[in-house]
Write a structure and sequence with these properties.
The complex is a heterodimer of chains A (435) and B (309).
Chain A lengths: L1 H15 L2 H25 L7 E7 L5 H14 L15 E5 L8 H12 L5 E5 L12 E5 L6 H22 L3 H7 L12 E2 L5 E2 L6 H35 L3 H5 L4 H33 L8 H28 L3 H16 L5 H6 L4 H7 L5 H10 L6 H29 L9 H9 L2
Parallel strand pairs in A: 1-2, 1-3
Antiparallel strand pairs in A: 3-4, 5-6
Helix pairs in contact in A: 1-9, 7-9, 7-10, 7-11, 7-14, 9-10, 9-15, 10-11, 10-14, 10-15, 13-14, 14-15, 15-16
Chain B lengths: L7 E12 L2 E12 L3 E5 L6 H8 L7 E6 L2 E2 L8 E4 L11 H11 L4 H14 L15 H13 L5 E5 L7 H16 L3 E5 L3 H7 L2 E6 L2 E7 H7 L4 E5 L13 E6 L4 E5 L3 H9 L6 E5 L3 H9 L10
Parallel strand pairs in B: 3-8, 3-9, 6-7, 7-8
Antiparallel strand pairs in B: 1-2, 1-4, 4-5, 9-10, 11-13, 11-14, 12-13
Chain lengths: 435, 309
Amino acid sequence: MRKIWIVALTEYLNSVRSKAFILGIVALPVMMFGGLIIGHLASDKVDVRPRKLAVVDQSGLFLPLLESRAAERNANELFSSTNRTKQVKPAFVIEAASTNGALSEGLELTLSDRVRSKDLFAFLLIRTNAAEIGATNAISYYTETATYEELPQWLNRVVNDEAKRRRFESAGVDRALIQRLTAPVEIRQLGLTKRDTSGKIQGAKETNRTATFLIPLGAVLLLFMLVMSSAPALLNSVLEEKMQKIAEVLVASVSPFQLMMGKLLGGVMVSLTLSVLYLGSTGWMLAKFEMFSYVEPSLFLWFIFFQLVAMLTFGSIFLAIGSACSEIRDAQSLMFPAMMMVILPMFCLGPVLQSPSSSFARALSLFPPATPTIMTLRIASKPGPPLWEILLGAALSTLFMLLCVWAAGKIFRIGVLSQGQAPTLGKMLKWVVSK
Amino acid sequence: MTAAPPTFAVNLVNVTKRFGQQVAVNDLTLQVPTGSIYGFIGPNGSGKTTTIRMIMHIVLPDNGTVEVLGQQGTRAANDVIGYLPEERGLYKKMTVRRLLVYYAGLKGMGAKDAGRAADDWLDRMDLSAWAGKKLEALSKGMAQKVQFISSVIARPKLLILDEPFSGLDPVNLEVIRTAILDLRKQGTTIIFSTHSMSAAEEMCDYVFMIYRGNKVLDGTLASIRARYGNDTIRLRVPGGAEALRGIPGVEVARDFGQNLELRNTGDPQALLQAIASRARVELFEVTTPSLHDIFVRIAKPQTTEVAHA
């Protein structure tokens, strides 16, 4: 046991003292928050060149309105509300394209050419029946830049508001009254009423939609990240020892199983260190934003438990693969199925989150390779699965983990001293059953 | 009271190891006396490394018994065995001293004791200034010395060195050679596998040769040489091997350029007269065959025949 500990401690210190580990610690927050910051910074980089729109208004109902609303918008909405010198939106410039309002293919082509030559940004054709009920193809918007949505959305709003106003008016209906009568009724989403420890009935609390989705998703993504950052690294570690001819020196002092267990425990310790850092900071943030009540303390315990199970399971598989290979290229092809075991449950997060107690979710959470991910997701999704399901999942995944460690030990024993071409999966299975 | 050391540090009895259909070691019996230097020789792929791995219990024999330092069939003795494999590497990102303490720890040495031993050996090998440096910063010669220290730091009772001198420059070679001999003086049993016949002749009390998995030589150097008789002639003549053309019963075993090593089946006096009648003889010595010659005779039976007239 002492030798396992010496190997584990050395592996752990080698990892946590490396630059890659320090970079890895900051990588997750950088990825999570860096994206938000970059998105925020990029949101400022708006193209504020004026958008010139030619309007052919055959109906004669909308052009003056568009001109006046554009002038109003240009006067009031172009600049940042906090910094009045900083323009954040482009001006919309309306041009009356045809004085007589006539529509013809020749006019469409002329306007299209003006768009192509960048004289115009877009043009709008409004037909005579635009305000009529049931009118089709009454208004057409032509542009080269279909991805720019602000202008057509603004046009849609202005033109439709005016069309509705005219319809209400011609029907002799009070529009303000209709709006009051058709106001929607709000539905509050609540949790359940419960009795506290002193026997008092506690009213149901309003659910926080963000928290109910973010916490389970965050927990599973963190678990996935912790496994992915530590387990495949074990493969590289043992492969490096083989490639640099260190393995034989080590197995002269420790048994292959002791070496494998030492490396595995070292990897688990690295993963737990990251876990403590991230869970600690997550806990601090939850407390700061008063969201701690959305997390059951048992979630932390189950998270650590399933993290341990996942690390030992997948870590031993990656160690076995690394020990059997002599080159990185061989290892990459063999590690694909192992990677799939880690990644595939992640594709099932959506259906499980929508319905955590469905037969599919329950079955998947009891399938050992997927248990750490899916059971953690179910536990984090209130009200969570019944305790017996959690315990059964824990027991099955622990048994599977022990099986993986045992089989990996058998492969490692032969693989760590093997040279040359990597074995096939079939041959590795033969090693498992060999004496 | 400590128990007396076993007579044989290593005692292999009828040991066989197969890999698939290939017999790597066949029915090998070998006894390495405690305190001796035992040379393992043999061509590449003949079974030396497999024999060493069985002694280390890294691989287990299919048949026979392996007893090391009185322990039979277990790795219990491994903590007092130092091992330097032929293909050896080091953790490039670790510092020299940390690596040595780690290796000593794996042999069961306490951290403080290991630290002191590391400092002593680094001082002795003139590497103290590099103790805190990463191994990737060391030259090849320095790294080889660190590898050697890693095999002896835990004060082994049995030291197994596989090609300890390969790639060493003469200065470092001498340092390692002296260290090995010092360890023997202190009672360490040493097995070393080598392709250098001269090193085996100079240092070994016993020589064991394995060829295609079978033991073909085992004993003291003198006894092995005696088995091959005084059929070897060392000769120096102007013109070299050309001066022997047509003389019956003589083969060139080895051509050193200046000197020749001959294998003679006839009368040495008659041979000397025959050569002297053709060329001026500068050196003529009747001797036992060198280990190199014996090795070649076993591993390559078809030696160069001098063309008979």
